[in-house]
Specification:
This protein has 80 residues and is α+β, with helices and mostly antiparallel strands. Helix content is 34%, strand content 18%. It has three helices and four strands, in the order E-H-E-H-E-E-H.
């Protein structure tokens, strides 16, 4: 199941966001969302926010930090 990060489109320019992504020590893939179409489509208003997209296209939006147990729970729910 892919996990994709999308930095805040209002945090600097593409170079700033690309540097942020490059400086992260994570295996998560990231995409630049300029001018913020993904944030608008999924109604993301702040970080951290996670949007879980199921195979049928339905979505669940969770704003706020999720610890590892809750994240695993959310991902398992998508598989069922």
């Amino acid at each position: 199941m892919p996990i994709i990060g999308v930095p805040n489109p209002e945090d600097g320019d593409d170079d700033d966001r690309a540097a942020f992504i490059e400086g992260m020590s994570t295996a998560i893939s990231h995409v630049l969302d300029d001018p913020g179409a993904l944030w608008i489509e999924y109604r993301v208003v702040s970080q951290p926010t996670m949007v879980f997209v199921a195979a049928d296209g339905s979505t669940e939006v969770r704003t706020g930090a999720l610890g590892p147990p809750k994240l695993v729970e959310e991902l398992r729910a998508l598989e069922s």
